[in-house]
Amino acid sequence: MKRKNNLILLLAAFLISFRAQAQLEKVFVETYYISDSYDAADTIGGYLETGSTTYRVYVDLVKGSKVQKIYGDVNHALKFSSSGIFFNNIADGQSFAKDMSKNRLGENTVALDSWLTLGQTTKAISKIFGAPKKEDDDGSFVGGINNDGGSTNYSLLTNSDPLAGVPLTYSDGNDTMSTVPLNWFDYGIIDDITDEDSTIFGSLKPDSVFVSYNCGLQNSGVSGVVPDSNHILVAQLTTKGDLRFAINLEVIDTAGNVLKYVASDSVLLAGEIFSRYLTYPFVQKCGCPDPNYLEYASDRDCDNGDSCQHVIVFGCMDPMSCNYDPAANVNVPSLCCYPGKCNDRDIALVCPQLTSERRNGLEFSVFPNPSTTVLNVRSTNANEVTRYVIYNSVGQKITEHLTDHAGNSFYIDISSLKKGIYMLRVFNDKQSNGQLFVKE
């Protein structure tokens, strides 16, 4: 039966899993708008205090992943709070942005309403989705000349406070997508009997805190407007106070698996993944920026080179194997070699100490070693060398040739090999032996 060397595939799979990145890369909060005295003068939408800030919460996912749910459960509460009251528009505000009519966003202060969403910012017919203002390149239909002024005699949402970044009159963070998510479902926020919302997302009872261990908003899954950045809007919140939240998410990864990301690790059930980014304000984490070190922190917010202490050394860490590597600090079981079990490799190459060839076998020398272009090979045995094989450092055959040289001296062109350590094995009619060489 033909033997197949699968060591490289096994090692590649190990490397991928060792350095795999989570689907959830980060959560960030955008300062969407800061209200001024003109906005506060409107009485149709309800009192909006001057200096109130409208925040938008975005989930940053790996390209191709989707958010399908924001929720709170018995072990992981969904929390939003502020040191001030959350604003909700009393005229046309909604608990969920998917229920918002596009034309209503030009009325009084409706565009600053507090709500939850999964990407979508208007009703499905408009196919409008949230995007960070810096990524929204189709202008604005919110604020300024697009606003009806409410109860005032002038347009609203025109404040260009630099703390809010791009003005709403230039870019409103609402962009189009060709498709909309399906199968919307919500629970625990709007009362099932009265169909009213008395939480911070409704205008019935002004409040500064929302905490629920049984609520959720979900759909079939949604990605960001810009596929490469994949930023998905999940909430808009307007308050003059200091914002805090803890959110939990269900994410569909690029393979179609559903992953649960939670804001607390006090209880972690099977399939749940803790992420510190789901709690705001975020606690900054500095760490090692070099992936070649054990201490590498892919989720760091800042670099700390001093934390890089141990260079990664992959190897077999089983003392019972014939190729146990005491210098390794990351165990790769597929590299371990035992008599009768060596992952389809030649055990004589991986563990030459198990053979007697070094004492009684074919003797030869290799020079120069290291070399950049040519190896000179010289055998001291009576029978001339008939062929040679070159293997890489994990025993995979690179090349094999018959020798056509008289006697036992010949050269090998290694200029096409990559830099590294290799094994040269030579054969005659009766014996064989191997030696390591280095290609520089």
Tally the helices: what do you get?
A: 4
Biggest sheet statistics: 6 strands, mixed
How many beta-strand segments? Answer: 27
Quickly give the structural class: mainly beta
- Radius of gyration, Cα only, in angstroms? 32 Å
Tell me, briefly, the overall form. elongated
Strand content: 25-35%
End-to-end gap? 37 Å
Order of strands in the sheet with the most strands? 8-10-3-13-14-15
Count up the domains.
2
* Uncertain regions spanning at least 5 consecutive residues: 1-21, 356-360
Structure description:
5% of the residues lie in helices and 30% in strands. The protein has two domains: 266 residues, no CATH class; 84 residues, Immunoglobulin-like, CATH 2.60.40. A hairpin with a 5-residue loop joins strand 23 and strand 24. It is mainly beta. The protein contains four helices and 27 strands. Strands 8-10-3-13-14-15 form a six-stranded mixed sheet, with no helix packed on it. Strands 1-2-11-5 form a four-stranded antiparallel sheet, with no helix packed on it. A four-stranded antiparallel sheet has the order 9-4-12-16, with no helix packed on it.
List the helices and strands and how they pair.
Elements: H1 7-18, E1 24-34, H2 37-40, E2 53-61, E3 66-72, E4 78-82, E5 115-116, E6 128-130, E7 174-176, E8 185-187, E9 209-212, E10 215-222, E11 231-239, E12 243-246, E13 248-252, E14 258-262, E15 272-274, E16 279-280, E17 286-287, E18 302-303, E19 314-315, E20 330-331, H3 347-350, H4 357-360, E21 364-367, E22 374-379, E23 387-391, E24 397-402, E25 409-413, E26 420-427, E27 432-439
Parallel strand pairs: 14-15, 17-18, 19-20
Antiparallel strand pairs: 1-2, 2-11, 3-10, 3-13, 4-9, 4-12, 5-11, 6-7, 8-10, 12-16, 13-14, 21-22, 22-25, 23-24, 23-26, 26-27
